[in-house]
Amino acid sequence: MALIKPFRALRPARELAAQIAALPYDVVNSKEAREMVRDNKYSFLRIDRGEINFPEQVDPRDPRVYQKAAEIFQKAVAHKHFIQDQTNNFYIYRQIMEGRAQTGLVAAASIDDYTQDIIKKHEFTLREKEQDRIDHIQALNAQSGPIFQTYRDNPEITEIIDKWAQNQEPEYQFEAHGVEHIIWVLDSPEMIRKITGLFAKIDYLYIADGHHRSAAAVRVGLQKRKDNPNYGADDHFNFFLSVLFPASDLKIWPYNRVVKDLAGYSEEEFLEKIQERFTVEPAPQSPYEPAAKRAFGMYLADKWYKLSPKPGIFDENDPVKSLDAAILQDHLLDPVLNIKDPRKEERIDFVGGIRGVQELERRIKEDMKVAFSIYPTSVQDVIRVADSGRVMPPKSTWFEPKLLSGLFIHKL
Q1: What are the residue ranges spanned by the domains of the chain?
Q2: Cβ neighbours for 359, distance < 8 A, ≥ 6 positions apart
Q3: Could you give the 3-state DSSP secondary structure of residue 270?
Q4: Predicted TM-score of the model (pTM)
Q5: Which residues pair with 297 in a beta bridge?
């Protein structure tokens, strides 16, 4: 049963929210972050990506980077760019993108639920990336990057949240990066009790995005328990910042692939080789974006092809092996292009579907040889894999819109 708690968020002063709120640290590189903050001294990227406050040659993992982030954070708090609520609240976070809304509950989730697999995962994490966020959390003594979680729809929870949003004035409302962001403070003790009780009846929560941030928050919390053996159950470090969305609200975009070479094959040999496991035919349109599962687009030598896996090459009942990303990896990228581990292989790159299939054509003209467009994974696929206790292939999901950082900070 899921344990969630309200908390006293440290959050932007109302007039600064749009300037402070920033894209997550891991969807922009240092160069992009520097450009974004050029005319915005308030941007949370100055705290989330502390290296942009130094000359470009500074290592993002240099201890000075985290110290600088903490210094900027502390000054912002001192100057009242952030305020801290005086009561424990939930918060409602609605995002509207291209006419589609997703509405989440901002709450503190339990590190025990994480360790006991009540909060389920679908990705492996890399220790180096975890350590970066551990160092960041410890420097700020706070969690600033919300974890994107989902749960099977519960009509009672949805009704309470929607009714509150209909009847209350938003605390923040602004547009950023093509998305409208609307936030309400849910401060009714009665409603907080009802929502907490309803989540206590939900069997599992699922991490949609933010595996490294959540792993880091849990590791910091467990270390604080060791450092404070007389800790209390309600101590803040026992919980981590989350936004919880009903599964039906979410949209997953494709996560497409581009590869630098054909592993020594000529174009004719490559096409012949992949026909051992796929039916290859001219794409019905150009560029080609698959309209259903088990179809792949391939862009090679200025031509789009449609690839369809031949019957029997994968197990339909296997929650992982039947995923489109796994089919492409197991039956083309690995055996034909010799890409054994896409997380480590430098010959492959990944393109979020939000950029469109035209971005694949651009990459082929610029620095790649062959591109693959994939039908997006479904939220139910994510839940199915997580329930099986297994992980998805790397770069299987691209959730959009992203949760902005700096809007809610959970102090430890």
Answers
A1: 4-251+400-411, 255-375
A2: 256, 351
A3: helix
A4: 0.93
A5: 306, 373
